[in-house]
Every structure is written in C-alpha cells, then in structure tokens.
Design goal:
This is F-box domain-containing protein. The chain has helices at 3-11, 23-32, 51-58, 79-86, 134-143, 157-177, 193-201, 204-207; strands at residues 40-46, 65-73, 92-99, 120-125, 149-153, 183-190, 211-213, 225-234, 241-250. By secondary structure, the chain is an alpha/beta fold. The chain has one domain (23-250). Helix 2 (23-32) packs parallel to helix 3 (51-58), helix 3 (51-58) packs parallel to helix 4 (79-86) and helix 5 (134-143) runs parallel beside helix 6. It is globular and about 60 Å long.
Length: 253
C-alpha cells in the first residue's frame, strides 16, 4: 500500500473515547455517516455500556461487510442489546465473536441470520458462556455454502460433536444434489482434559463416511494444534474430492 492509500485509509477511520455522559456525540456522528457501506466493523465492549444499542439502531447489513468482530466482556447488563445487534448481521464474509456472558441464558432457538456470504467464522465462549446451539449451527451451515473455516472455542463438549455431524451432513447433502466439492476445516479450542479425551476417542469412522487417517497417541502439548482426523471422499461423477480436517488446540492451565 502506498502513502496516498495510507492517507485514504486513515481518513475513513474514526475512533471515539467517550464518557457515559457524552453519548450524544456518538448519536450526532452516526446520523451523519452512511453505515450501509462499511468494510469492517470491530466492536469491543468492557463493562456496562450503551454503545452497542446505539450503534445497532443505525446499523443495517444489506450490503456485504468483509469482517465483523464483536468482543463483549463484563457486559451482562448489555446481554439483550448484544443479542439484538447480532440478529441484524446478515451479509458478512468473516465473523468473529468473543463473548463472556457467564450463566446467562441464550435462547435455544437463537440464530444469527447471515446468508450466502460467510467464508469463515470464529466463536469463543468465555467463562461458562453457552452461546452456540444446534439451530444456530444448522442455519449457518445450511445458508452459507462457501463457509469452509470454523474456529470454535466452546464450553459444552456435546456441541463439538453436534457441529461435526451437522457440517458433514449438510456438506454431503450438497454433494448428493450436484458436484459441489469443498475442503472444510474445523478447529476447536479445548480447555479441559475431559474434552480432549472425548474428541481424541470420538468414533469418527462410524459417524463420518470419509476415507481417513488418524494420529494415534495424541500429545497433550499446551497450545499446540493437534489433528484428530483427516478425511477425503472422491466424487464418482467428476472425480473431485471432498475433504475435512478436524483439529484441536489445547489450553490447559
């Protein structure tokens, strides 16, 4: 990127450092800008704030956004506002969520209505947060055929198994209908020995119909990505391959 491009990049960057009594300045700014043509949205919240509610009132995601990042820490009072904002996300290439809502109940039918745009997704559940549910995963996988990168750090081990089985089922259903072949990568963050053992001993052969290889005697190296499963399946019509890779990165403290 040359210097003139750098200047243009800076020109479109806006940073706000506001006291809670100065939120009118944010209102005034949002009323003057076009939020329908954003390239990147990065929201980081710590402690109770009205920012996400205010931004959500002006946010409309009809035109594709390259990336959306949402980090919410110690914002239990903004739980409803955060969920309402996420429900407005419809058209984004990369979505990354880092959520800390310990012991709060996300509705079991809650979804993020993004369609025909996602290519990669990262969800990190922190401090006993349980955000992901089966309907959400079904919806995301069903409606985003180009999604091939999943990075998930979850608190409920059963959701890992649900995600594996949902992704494979939907992927192979597309294969049955036409020659639509992709390489899928599932990367899981694992924070307990129990989850590590469960994933390493999961019966991939019975549940996944791929030709596959597995690595025996998996190590416990903290922070090292470990491959649990590599699978591929040749299409009898065109000879192309579907493939899937399932990995885990361990974090034992």
């Amino acid at each position: 990127m040359n210097s003139s491009e750098n200047v243009d990049e800076i020109r479109f960057l806006r940073a706000f450092y506001l006291h809670s009594s100065e939120l009118d300045e944010l209102y005034n700014f949002l009323q003057k800008v076009d939020l329908t043509s954003l390239d990147l949205v990065d929201i980081s919240l710590d402690n109770h704030t009205e920012i996400i509610r205010i931004f959500s009132d002006y946010f409309h995601n009809h035109i594709r956004i390259n990336s959306i990042y949402v980090t919410s820490t110690n914002c239990e009072k903004d739980f409803g506002n955060t969920l309402s904002f996420l429900e407005k996300i419809q058209n984004v290439g990369h979505l990354e969520l880092n959520l800390r809502f310990p012991h709060l109940n996300v509705p079991k039918d809650y979804i993020i209505p993004v369609r025909n745009s996602l290519k990669s997704i990262i969800i990190q559940e922190k401090a006993n947060t349980v955000f992901v549910n089966s309907r959400m995963i079904e919806y995301i996988v069903e409606n985003n055929p180009n999604l091939d990168e999943y990075h998930l750090f979850l608190n409920n081990f059963e959701n890992y198994k649900m995600i594996i089985e949902t992704v494979v089922r939907r992927k192979l259903s597309r294969r049955d209908n036409l020659c639509f072949h992709k390489s899928i990568s599932l990367r899981f963050g694992i924070s307990s020995y129990e989850a590590f053992f469960e994933l390493s001993n999961y019966d991939y052969s019975e549940n996944l119909p791929y030709n596959h290889s597995r690595i025996p005697n998996l190590p416990f190296d903290n922070g090292i990505e470990i491959t649990f499963y590599n699978g591929y399946l040749e299409c009898p019509v065109c000879g192309e391959f579907d493939s899937i890779k399932i990995c885990g990165r361990t974090f034992f403290f």
